[in-house]
């Protein structure tokens, strides 16, 4: 399994551009959110020829903005359910494209979404293989590829 | 024309519906929705859509399971997938079961239109 073929930045840029009409820019600093920032995380797991997970993280405000674009509504009309749905779909599309890039026979889980402040995301038995930070209109978006350590 | 959009994501159903609304090819079509394959089976029986646009990976019943169930019942309408997963194996499986196309997410309305051109 050659994970070097996975270009997280290209995958993310294509998704945000085609589905949201938003441009992601490179982020040259450490892809870390301030501890007091509310962060939404969407995650999908991949099993089969490749074992791991893909996460996408964005600020709560950006997640609401993305949901508003997806639902063609104003951000203040968007509820938590819509935000969760939108972040889950971003994770699903990102993970689905990662899977399609490098997997022969793999299964993609349904997405899970969580949000809060100053928390860590871990998938037992996996390690971070790639993590990129990008920005959309100055707001950080972080995408992480985790891979099972014995794979 | 009646089009059924099947996806467990409400956001993606909204995006697919919005893309369809921009296409002359399906202008005036009535768009109906289902949240997974299981619900879609009931909607198809009740509403007899002309076209089904389905996600692949869904709870309760996946898109390919839905297509298989429709084939077994001998009642499959024109069927296409709109999915974030797009391996050659999935294309082959979809084709084997009679799907007319598989549009990969992310997609543009133009990509959807191109797929529909070969199916409608």
Keywords:
heterodimer, A: 151 residues, alpha+beta, seven-stranded antiparallel β-sheet, 3 helices, 32% helix, globular, B: 120 residues, alpha/beta, five-stranded parallel β-sheet
Strand order, sheet with most strands of chain B? 2-1-3-4-5
Rg of chain B over CA atoms, rounded to whole Å, is 13 Å
Instruction: Determine the number of helices of chain A (DSSP H or I, runs of at least 4 residues).
Output: 3
Work out the number of β strands of chain B: 5
> Uncertain spans of chain B, ≥5 residues at pLDDT below 50?
none
Which band does the percent of strand residues of chain B land in? 15-25%
Determine Rg of chain A (CA atoms, Å): 15 Å
Shape of chain A: globular
Question: Hey, which two chains have the biggest interface?
Answer: A-B, 27 and 22 residues
The SSE order of chain B reads: EHEHEHEHEH
Largest sheet of chain B: 5 strands, parallel
Structural class of chain B: alpha/beta
Describe this structure in words.
The complex is a heterodimer of chains A (151) and B (120). Chain A has helices at 8-20, 60-71, 80-102, and strands at residues 25-26, 38-48, 52-59, 106-108, 112-117, 126-136, 139-148. By secondary structure, chain A is α+β, with helices and mostly antiparallel strands. In chain A, a hairpin with a 3-residue loop joins strand 2 (38-48) and strand 3 (52-59). Chain B is α/β, with parallel strands linked by helices. Chain B has 5 helices and 5 strands. The longest helix of chain B has 12 residues, at 10-21. The radius of gyration of chain B is 13 Å and the shape is globular. The A-B interface holds A 14-15, 17-19, 67, 70-72, 82, 85-86, 88-89, 92-93, 95-97, 99-100, 103-106, 108, 110 and B 8-12, 14-15, 18, 57-59, 83-87, 89, 104-108.
């Amino acid at each position: 399994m050659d994970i070097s073929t996975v270009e997280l930045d290209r995958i993310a840029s294509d998704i945000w551009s085609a589905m949201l009409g938003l441009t992601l820019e490179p982020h040259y600093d450490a892809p870390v959110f301030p501890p007091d920032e509310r962060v939404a995380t969407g995650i999908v797991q991949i099993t089969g020829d490749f074992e791991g997970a893909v996460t996408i993280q964005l600020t709560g405000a950006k997640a609401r903005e993305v949901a508003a674009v997806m639902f063609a509504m104003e951000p203040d009309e968007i509820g938590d359910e819509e935000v969760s749905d939108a972040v889950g779909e971003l994770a699903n599309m990102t993970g689905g494209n990662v899977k399609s890039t490098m997997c022969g026979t793999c299964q993609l889980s349904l997405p899970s979404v969580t949000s809060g402040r100053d928390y860590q995301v871990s998938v037992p038995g996996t390690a971070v293989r790639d993590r990129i930070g990008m920005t959309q209109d100055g707001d950080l978006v972080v995408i992480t590829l985790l891979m099972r350590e014995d794979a | 024309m009646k089009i059924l959009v099947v996806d467990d994501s409400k956001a993606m159903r909204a995006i697919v519906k919005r893309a369809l609304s921009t296409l002359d090819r399906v202008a005036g079509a009535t768009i109906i929705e289902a949240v997974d394959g299981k619900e879609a089976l009931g909607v198809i029986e009740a509403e007899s859509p002309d076209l089904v646009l389905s996600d692949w990976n869904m709870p309760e019943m996946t898109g390919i399971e839905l297509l298989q169930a429709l084939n077994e019942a001998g009642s499959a309408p024109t069927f296409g997938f709109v999915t974030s997963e797009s391996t050659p194996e999935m294309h082959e499986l979809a084709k084997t079961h009679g799907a007319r196309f598989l549009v990969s997410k992310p997609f543009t309305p133009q990509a959807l239109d191109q797929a529909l051109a070969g199916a409608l």
